[in-house]
Amino acid sequence: MREQSHGDPPRDHLTAVPAPVDDRSEADRLLVAVGRGDEGAFRQLYELVAARVYGLARQVLRDPAQAEEVAQEVLVEVWRTAARFEPSKGSATAWVFTIAHRRAVDRVRSEQAATDRVQKAGSWSAQTPYDEVSGEVEERLERQQVRRCLDDLTSLQRESITLAYYGGRSYREVATLLNVSLPTIKTRMRDGLIRLRDCLGVEVPS
Amino acid sequence: MTNGDVHALSGAYVLDALTDIERATFRRHLVSCATCAIEVAELQETAARLADGAWSVPPPALRDRVFAEVSRTRQDAPTPAKPVRPQRNRRLFSVAAAVVLAAVAATGTFAVQERRLDQQRTTAQAESARVTEVLSAPDAILRSAGSTSGVRLTVVTSAARGEAVLTMTAERPAGADRTYQLWMLDGTTPTSAAVLPPGTTSATRLITGTAAADTFAATIEPEGGSATPTLPIVGQVSVA
Asked: Residues A109, A136: one domain?
């Protein structure tokens, strides 16, 4: 991503736009079929979600090789545990991307544990500044509803959510990066997501 | 933590921005708070929409590897296995006990491998007998959980005895100058249960005084162990 600024056409831009918003019910149908052992349905589901699973892992981890490993783990986990998906409790895409985000963040945290914590504590704040994370994300969100809704948030809400979700930061790290108290960060993450929920019209059948 | 504090964690929870201990605390809270569970479901759905902003075309080889692995991967049952309670189902428990006993055997009879001195053998045999007693206790409950760090913890607890048998299997050693340490947690208060010898990737320990423990966990620590756990937790199993 950063290396692409030197003349090579950015690869991410040569590809099809992400699946349209109404892919969700299709994903629901496919994931239910996957839960019954339908490998053909899994292959179709792969085409719907793999770019976002891989992209999310890459965004959070920053390392293409690790992102590929995590994406593979996630997609195989989707196959393995698909029978537990309950359409009445949420969408298939949310189910898949929740697993993907969790696994990517798990990997970040274990990587952090593996390196010298003291050294890391001194240097991590410089690694992925907010502007860099948000810049890449904004390019991909062009023309999408999520983008408009993110724009509706206060800057503190937007920065908190962006650093945690796309940057894989813990809320403590976010508080340090934004120089805000822990209770404030927790609250901004929550009320920011609530505002985002209302803007997107997210509903969960219950 | 007051209820108000716990509620406020829902945003950080769905963004995966909590520590493992906070996450476990929040999940326990969710079980008893229906409105929180609905809010979390909605915020989870909302957060997942953010993935639309992170797409990136995966290498073609990923597709081949995923499909190949899928074709040889058996799918899990629809619902995750619940803790097996012997009072309700003796047959299942005997299967569970067999699994643990096999795990104990596979992890190399701690009686022999890790207590080489003859004079310690008697003690070890007594401990081994107690392990068997815990595993066969009428109120024994088996729970097991793996982690993405490749650490699986399997624990059999007997509330009546206030004892547990904890088995850890890790995919890889803890690393240079590091070792695995096992903990029991009472809420967020950790008590060291065992420091494993460096290089160990599997071990079974009899743990006493487990009455207040609600979670068993493993961390990676400097050789010799630490007084308090160094985060992150690399494996945990809840017994609450």
From this structure: no
